[in-house]
Automatic annotation (TrEMBL):
<keyword id="KW-0411">Iron-sulfur</keyword>
<dbReference type="GO" id="GO:0051537">
    <property type="term" value="F:2 iron, 2 sulfur cluster binding"/>
</dbReference>
<dbReference type="InterPro" id="IPR012675">
    <property type="entry name" value="Beta-grasp_dom_sf"/>
</dbReference>
<dbReference type="GO" id="GO:0016491">
    <property type="term" value="F:oxidoreductase activity"/>
</dbReference>
<dbReference type="InterPro" id="IPR016208">
    <property type="entry name" value="Ald_Oxase/xanthine_DH-like"/>
</dbReference>
<dbReference type="InterPro" id="IPR001041">
    <property type="entry name" value="2Fe-2S_ferredoxin-type"/>
</dbReference>
<keyword id="KW-0479">Metal-binding</keyword>
<dbReference type="Pfam" id="PF00111">
    <property type="entry name" value="Fer2"/>
</dbReference>
<keyword id="KW-0001">2Fe-2S</keyword>
<dbReference type="InterPro" id="IPR006058">
    <property type="entry name" value="2Fe2S_fd_BS"/>
</dbReference>
<dbReference type="GO" id="GO:0005506">
    <property type="term" value="F:iron ion binding"/>
</dbReference>
<feature type="domain" description="2Fe-2S ferredoxin-type">
    <location>
        <begin position="18"/>
        <end position="67"/>
    </location>
</feature>
<keyword id="KW-0408">Iron</keyword>
<protein>
    <recommendedName>
        <fullName>2Fe-2S ferredoxin-type domain-containing protein</fullName>
    </recommendedName>
</protein>
<dbReference type="InterPro" id="IPR036010">
    <property type="entry name" value="2Fe-2S_ferredoxin-like_sf"/>
</dbReference>
Amino acid sequence: MESVNSLIPDDAQKTLIFFVNGKKVIEENPDPEWTLLFYLRKKLLLTGTKYGCGEGGCGACTVMISQYSKIKDSIKYPLYM
């Protein structure tokens, strides 16, 4: 089976920058095969998010995603339906 890394172009941006609980996280070469759940628990040692059913149905692995606007000084949450 082909590795996920082989599908990423050589000139692709390989640094992932995001915020978790208000702290900036810079991951230089993120593993594309890691789930967000695995990253939060194993790399950042944030164990509040749990592994449940393994397919997203039970909600145990739910993570809230938001966007902060400096201009409006507010947080925007995406709406999913």
